[in-house]
Amino acid sequence: MSRIILLMHLSSFLVAHLFISGVVSTTFTITNSCNYTVWPGVYSLATPAFSTTGFSLEKNESRIIKAPASWTGRFWGRTYCTEDSSGNFSCITGDCGSGKLECSGSGGAPPATLARFMLGSLDYYAVSVVYGFNLPLLVVPSGQKCSSTGCIGDVNESCPTELEVTTGTEGKSVGCKSACAALGSYCCHGPDKCKPSLYSNFFKNLCPQSYSYSYDGDTNTTYSCPSTDYQITFCPGKSINTTSYTPNPIRNTTGVTANNSRPSSGEIPPSSMPEIRPNATSRRKWEPIIAGVVGGVLAIISFVVIVVLRVRWSKSEDTEEDVEDDHIQLVPGMPVRFSYRDLCIATDDFKETLGRGGFGSVFKGVLPDRTGIAVKQWHKVLGHVTVKVDVYSFGIVLLEVVCARRNVDHSQPESAFHLLRMLQEKEEYILGYLDEYIQSDREEIIRMLEVAAWCLQDDPERRPLMSTVVKVLEGLMEVDSNLVYKFSHALTPPSSVDAHISSAPPPASVLSNPR
Asked: Sorted alphabetically, which keywords does the UniProt record give (predicted)?
């Protein structure tokens, strides 16, 4: 039930999102202008995802990839990556921890310069150094009158010693951590506690167009542009003009918000970037109307379906019966069973008596189809007579059918007088006896004998249900391998009929044997 509800909510969200966003494909051209190899990483915040999540770019190499419609996620560059002898892939900065070239749904670990996008009919994009800096990055949209943004200065050259990430051998600065990741005491939660610090101002001075801390409300940090393509360049150089177009940043009317339960730095979680919120005034007037109508209709449909399924589920719980009993009813030839309530209705609460016996009275009844019946109501029960008695009887019948003789045959020699005794003493003895008459199907005979032995177990609880026997005969189940070939009634010596006449009630064990 919970899975059905979850799917309905997801369906409502996806359909509404498609109405609002439209289906537009965006192309990203990613270029490496660094003097060294860069391994870009791609992380998708929600489906649909990119066809690749990580690849390598040599110096001056570019790669073009298409983004799915309405994609939200981020790009970053991994640097100083190596692969050890066991095939484990790792990087000094931006490592996604997958152990492979592909990040496979993992985000980059700080420090890493991030480019964040939310694509739709109106795109939103930003560059962030909230979680540190590892290499210069520039985002240039192809649309006219759309602003470029990025962090093109080399922060590593000026990074404070306490924030530096260096290579193990050369001691070269290859990254600059955030104050939270490096010192810990600067980590914070919520806009009330997360304020600009000396270190965030350091990043802001070198990268004025980038986010410098989680609640950075600067107007020149998040930009919007009608659906277009983008050029992402690592190490673009300071000669590139980043303000060649008229900027269109998000103003303070919306600002930048983030989840209050998220720390301002540390390992980058899936939603670690400051959340990009579109300006309400820039959306078309009909978009909220469509979203409301579609969402409302889907919510009503979901509610109706949930109510119907809930009612059906409750009814199935109220009428649930024993599973094995249900299986027995499906076996052809099984006698009809009646509930006590059915018998009360048929006999008018056991009103008309037909006769009386030692263990109870017999009452007249009429079924709904006008069939007359006689119902005996027992007043004295001396043991537990269950369906397992019928299973025992079936075992005797099956043994007699396989051996083509009665269970007790006085005409046979003493060693073959009792089939149960033959089965108990040694199964091969029965097979030798049968070999005189049957020359084939030996394996099938052995299986039938095992089924019979299972039905004839002394302990009624060890005997199978008839539904299980049917499944074994049909080849759907196997016989219990833990059978006990010891049958107490096989050891009882034959006696005269008079010896059974007694006024004493029979023991409970007899009631579990064949009637």
From this structure: ATP-binding, Membrane, Nucleotide-binding, Signal, Transmembrane, Transmembrane helix
